Amino acid sequence: MVIHRIKMIEVLKNYLILLTYFVITTFNLFGQNLPPIQLDRPDQTECPFITPKKYIQIENGFTIENFDKTQKSFNLPSTLWKWGVNEKIELRLITELISEKTNEKTITGFSPITIGFKTSLFEEKGLLPKTSFIGHITTSKIGSKEFQTKFIAPSFRFTMQHTLTNKISLAYNLGAEWNGENALHSWIYTLTTGFNLTNKIGCYTELYGYLPNDKADHRFDCGLTYLINNDLIVDISGGFGLTDKFKNYISLGLSYRFKLIKSKIC
Questions:
Q1: What's the rounded Cα separation, in Å, for the pair 94 and 21?
Q2: In this structure, is residue 266 part of a structural domain?
Q3: 237: CATH
Q4: Spatial distance between the Cα atoms of 201 and 163, rounded to a whole number of angstroms
Q5: pTM of the predicted protein model
Q6: 8 A C-beta contact, residue 115 and residue 92
Q7: What is the mean pLDDT of residues 133-159?
């Protein structure tokens, strides 16, 4: 157990060192002329905005989840990698380093990677919300053996957002996901209200949940974001379950974007 914890701490330490170095060395490449960065975190509601063309956006989340007294999960971290193809489409890759503890047993490894895309469908006009579609496929075998699944697992969402005032927005998602273990699916819903407290600080409150074939799983969360500059943002969030399927979670995040620079051959 001690050796396992030491290895987990070393992996996390090396990741943080690499992440810090990457942010510092690419800081001068950030595009300050763009609007502020838009995230799919820290809430569970995916946003309808597309990553700017030729930009890479990286959204990192370090999360502790408590499902009950015997089951706990750590994301160390979960990372969403996004690449803006054009004004309408972004490509997406999700990687997760997970440590799960059940009773006295702990397993650590990478969950199967997820690939996907987001495409813009409609711009906001009157009662019509800004709308995008997100599609993902989670691989079954491209990950640590302990977390592999029997089948590939698709998921999809329609993500919508209304601008209520220049400081308040209302966003919601509707979709479904599969777990990779069987043919059953869960419906997904989210509803969040975002507030701009200042030019730098934002907050949100959210109701979300999963509707499988058996008992529904409803949850509530809230959080804060701090915009360091237009391309670099940190966040903190937490939530709890409204049913007995989930207890609580807390999460810290760091997200940033930078433009791909083409090298010139002399």
A1: 21
A2: no
A3: 2.40.160.40
A4: 17
A5: 0.87
A6: yes
A7: 96
Q: How far is CA 45 from CA 168, 188, 219, in A?
A: 15, 10, 12
The separation between the first and the last C-alpha atoms of the chain, rounded to the nearest angstrom, is 55
> What is the number of structural domains in the chain?
1
- CA 96/CA 59 separation, integer angstroms: 12
Domain span holding position 67: 2-256
Which secondary structure element, helix H or strand E, spans residue 24, and what is its range? helix 2-26
pLDDT tens column, 48-100: 999 999 999 999 999 999 998 889 999 999 999 999 999 999 999 999 999 99
Exposed / middle / buried, residue 223 (Cβ in 10 Å: 0-12, 13-18, 19+): buried
How far lies 185's CA from each of 42, 43, 149, 189, in Å?
A: 24, 22, 15, 13
Closest CA to 65 of 242, 217, 248, 238: 248
93 closest CA partner among 68, 121, 63, 58: 58
Q: Which tokens hold the place of 172? A: 């919601």
State which H helix or E strand residue 11 sits in: helix 2-26
> Environment class of residue 183 by beta-carbon count within 10 Å: exposed (0-12), middle (13-18) or buried (19+)?
exposed
Q: In the predicted model, what is the mean pLDDT of the chain?
A: 90
Distance (Å, whole) CA 161 – CA 193: 10
Phi-psi group of 230: left, alpha or beta (phi > 0 → left; psi -120 to 50 → alpha; rest → beta)? alpha
